[in-house]
């Protein structure tokens, strides 16, 4: 029991010392939810594991200069860990899989598509949460496609099963949405889901703000994982800034003057004048004064 719980929380990124300390305090039979709450109370935060970071770095460098992904480009230039500038990603595995399976089949291939999309951007901290009972042999009323993908992602320390068990023949399932929001909140990351988690928003005002500001919705278009370019609306940040710890401010866009060459505001005009690229913007009166001075100087000469 101790080893299974230790492995479970190690996959979440928590340190072994913190986990052992909590298990000693709460006892070996403590529920996973209680252990997670105690870890959060202690101030322990998940960290990106070295074994996970190193292969991702090697994979990104091996792609060569042909890749246009900003994550791989910055990694080659700075040779630094991408976790310095890219937010951790926490994926709602059930939501993504059912969305890819058209709400009829639990499609594990959809989870793989989402993971690959974030990998190509350079994200090194990617966690997918799926209920443990999805590991069992699928039933007719809950079909699963490409179930072997779950095992492969688990070996890569990307997929985490939320605990479940059977009591007197009935399945007792822990609330996987709470794991998703907690880990994303503690790592200051983003949640990938089309669920709004309204029940969890009402539990905690900090979670409410976090879910509103860090929820990344998506669509599947012909087996292509596609998040929106404007995750928080047309007036919000771009997708690149949304996924970045250090957003880049957009370049100012100058609106052309509606009066064009007939404008009489000169240098006081707040709009852009393409006909005056390298010239000081003078008013008509100032231009006349300047021309008069030039004519007077010529007459004197």
UniProtKB/TrEMBL annotation:
InterPro entries: Rege-1_UBA-like, RNase_Zc3h12_NYN, ZC3H12/N4BP1_RNase_Reg, Znf_CCCH. Pfam families: RNase_Zc3h12a, UBA_6. GO terms for cellular component: cytoplasmic ribonucleoprotein granule; nucleus. The keyword Phosphoprotein does not apply. Residues 251-276 form the C3H1-type domain. GO terms for molecular function: hydrolase activity; mRNA binding; RNA endonuclease activity; zinc ion binding. Keywords: Endonuclease, Hydrolase, Magnesium, Metal-binding, Nuclease, Zinc, Zinc-finger. PROSITE patterns: ZF_C3H1. Its cofactor is Mg(2+). A zinc finger (C3H1-type) spans 251-276. CDD domains: PIN_Zc3h12-like (cd18729). Belongs to the ZC3H12 family. This is ZC12D ribonuclease. The gene is Zc3h12d.
């Amino acid at each position: 029991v101790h080893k299974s719980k230790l492995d479970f929380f190690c996959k979440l990124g928590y340190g072994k010392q913190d986990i052992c300390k909590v298990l000693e305090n709460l006892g070996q039979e403590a529920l996973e939810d209680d252990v997670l709450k105690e870890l959060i109370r202690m101030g322990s935060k998940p960290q990106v594991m070295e074994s996970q970071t190193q292969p991702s770095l090697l994979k990104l460098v091996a792609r060569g200069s042909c890749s246009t992904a900003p994550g791989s480009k910055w990694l080659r230039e700075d040779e630094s860990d991408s976790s310095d500038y890219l937010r951790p990603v926490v994926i709602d595995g059930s939501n993504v899989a059912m969305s890819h399976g058209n709400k009829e089949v639990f499609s594990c291939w959809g989870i793989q598509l989402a993971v690959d999309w974030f990998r190509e951007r350079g994200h090194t901290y990617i966690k997918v949460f799926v209920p443990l009972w999805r590991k069992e042999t699928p039933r007719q009323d809950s079909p699963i496609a490409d179930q072997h993908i779950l095992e492969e992602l688990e070996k890569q320390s990307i997929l985490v099963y939320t605990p479940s068990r059977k009591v007197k023949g009935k399945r007792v399932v822990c609330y996987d949405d709470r794991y998703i929001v907690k880990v994303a909140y503690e790592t200051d990351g983003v949640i990938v889901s089309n669920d709004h988690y309204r029940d969890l928003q009402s539990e905690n005002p900090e979670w409410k703000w976090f879910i509103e500001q860090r929820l990344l919705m998506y669509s599947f278009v012909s087996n292509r994982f596609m998040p929106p370019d404007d995750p928080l609306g047309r007036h919000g940040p771009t997708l690149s800034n949304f996924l970045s710890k250090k957003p880049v401010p957009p370049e100012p866009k100058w609106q052309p003057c509606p009066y064009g060459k007939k404008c009489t505001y000169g240098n006081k005009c707040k709009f852009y004048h393409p006909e005056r690229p390298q010239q000081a913007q003078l008013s008509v009166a100032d231009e006349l004064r300047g021309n008069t001075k030039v004519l007077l100087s010529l007459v004197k000469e």
